[in-house]
Design brief:
binds nicotinamide-adenine-dinucleotide, alpha/beta, single chain, 12 helices, 19% strand, disordered C terminus, 276 residues
C-alpha cells in the first residue's frame, strides 16, 4: 500500500473528519492567496490594509487606494464558484462525519453544499454591526453590483463620499448604526462561537485533513496540534511542504477529489453550487 492509499484508508476508517481549509483551496476558484509572490500583501501592505484602524486611515487619506484594495478583495470572490475540492468535501458527507473549519471568507464551502462550516475568520458575505450583531447576508450577485459601482467610481475623481456611496451595501451607517462585513483582521479576536466549536471538533475527530493552509496564521495554525494531541491522524494537501503525518503534495482541486474517491469509491457526484 503506498502513502496515498494509506492516507485514504485513514479517511475511510474515520467516523469524524475535520477538513481545515485556507486560501489554497480557493486558488483554483480564481481567488488568489494573500502571501504568495504576487499576493495581495505585496501590493497592499498589511500595516495599512489589514487592520480596521489602518483601513479607516487609508480610506480617509487615500480613498482611491482604499477602493483599489476593496476591489482586489471583492472582485475574485464575486466571480468565484466552488471548485472540485469544495464539491468533493461536501459530497463526502454522504460517507462520513465531516466538519469544515475554514479560514476563508469566500462562502465557497456553503455554496458547494457543505452543511457544517465554521468560518473562524468570518465571512465577506455577512454584514454585521460594529459590535458584531448580524444584519444581513449578501449574495455573490450583490458583490458583483458593488464591484461594478466601484468600476464606475474609478472613472472619476474618487473622493471619500463617492467611495462610501459605491460601497454602501458593504460598509456605512444605517438605522441600526454603523455596519461592515464580518471579517477578522490582524489583531482581532476570532469569531468566538466558530472557534470554540472548531477546537472541540479538532479534539474529537479521528482524521484532520488540512487543505491549502500555510500554517502561518495564528491561532488557527494550532488546530492541527490540538487534533494530533488528541490522537487524530493529520493529512495535509498543499503544493508546498507541510508538516503532517501524510503530506499529499499537489493542488487541492486535483488531490482532494482523488483522496475521497480512493477512500469511498467513484461516484463523488459533481454537486454544482449556488450563488451564495
Ligand atoms: P494561507 O495561510 O491560507 O496559505 C495558503 C496556502 O495555500 C499555502 O500553504 C500555499 O502553498 C497553498 N496553496 C497555494 N495554492 C494551492 C492550491 N492550488 N491547492 C492547495 N494549496 C495551495 O494563505 P494566505 O494567503 O496567507 O492567507 C492569510 C489569511 O487570509 C488566511 O486566513 C486565509 O484564509 C485568508 N484568505 C482567504 C481567502 C479566501 O477567502 N479565499 C483568500 C486569501 C486569503
Amino acid at each position: 500500500m503506498d502513502r496515498f492509499d494509506e492516507a485514504a484508508d485513514w479517511v475511510r476508517s474515520s467516523r469524524e473528519v475535520v477538513v481545515f481549509t485556507g486560501a489554497g483551496i480557493s486558488a483554483e476558484s480564481g481567488i488568489p492567496t494573500f502571501r504568495d509572490d504576487s499576493g495581495l500583501w505585496q501590493r497592499f501592505p498589511p500595516e495599512q490594509f489589514a487592520t480596521w484602524a489602518g483601513l479607516v486611515r487609508t480610506a480617509t487619506l487615500q480613498p482611491r487606494r482604499f477602493c483599489e484594495f476593496v476591489y482586489s478583495v471583492l472582485e475574485p470572490i464575486a466571480a468565484a464558484r466552488p471548485n472540485p475540492a469544495h464539491r468533493a468535501i461536501a459530497e463526502a458527507e454522504r460517507h462520513t462525519g465531516i466538519t469544515v473549519v475554514t479560514q476563508n471568507i469566500d462562502g465557497l464551502h456553503q455554496a458547494a453544499g457543505s452543511t457544517t462550516v465554521h468560518e473562524i475568520h468570518g465571512s465577506l458575505l455577512e454584514i454585521v454591526t460594529v459590535s458584531g450583531r448580524f444584519r444581513r447576508l449578501l449574495s455573490r450577485a450583490d458583490l458583483r453590483e458593488i464591484t461594478s459601482s466601484l468600476e464606475k467610481a474609478f472613472r472619476g475623481i474618487l473622493t471619500l463620499p463617492r467611495a462610501l456611496v459605491a460601497l454602501r451595501r458593504l460598509i456605512g451607517i444605517g438605522s441600526g448604526g454603523a455596519y461592515r462585513p464580518n471579517l477578522v483582521l490582524f489583531g482581532d479576536a476570532l469569531v468566538q462561537s466558530a472557534w470554540t466549536q472548531s477546537v472541540s471538533a479538532a479534539r474529537t475527530c479521528d482524521c484532520f485533513l488540512q487543505v491549502g493552509c500555510s500554517g502561518l496564521v495564528l491561532p488557527a495554525a494550532t488546530l492541527p496540534q490540538e487534533a494530533k494531541a488528541a490522537g487524530a491522524c493529520i493529512l495535509a494537501v498543499d503544493p508546498n511542504p507541510t508538516e503532517a503525518d501524510f503530506w499529499l503534495q499537489g493542488r487541492a482541486a486535483e488531490v482532494v477529489p482523488m483522496l475521497f474517491e480512493t477512500a469511498f469509491g467513484k461516484g463523488q457526484v459533481d454537486s454544482g453550487g449556488d450563488d451564495r
